[in-house]
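As a warm-up, study this chain.
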Amino acid sequence: MTFCHFCQHNYSHAATGIPTTKVKYSRVADNEDGYIDLQFKRSPPKVPYKAIALAAFLFLIGSLLIIIGALLLAGYIHVSHPDRTVPVLIIGILVFLPGFYHLRIAYYASKGYRGYSYEDIPDFDD
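Now compare it with the structure written out below.
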């Protein structure tokens, strides 16, 4: 019978129910500190394609609404109700800003700039 130092009894782990005679252990070499390089290697970042596509869509729609709102406000497009031009411009700005922000993060993360990561973009796959 083997003595388990974690559970303080002689025959099995209480949490797993596995007898210690069936658990295989491997001894770490004496000249190493117990760490291997593989455990510190970062996995490649997961690119949130759906979130980037949504950001691009918001960016394009916002840009289009800003252009249309500016043309309406400047009088290049004739409207019968001029009080409806400012809301088009405001909605365009509100749609443009999050799209631009997340596209900028995605661009800098793809180029590898320090401080930018794909993890900063909300992912909808969860």
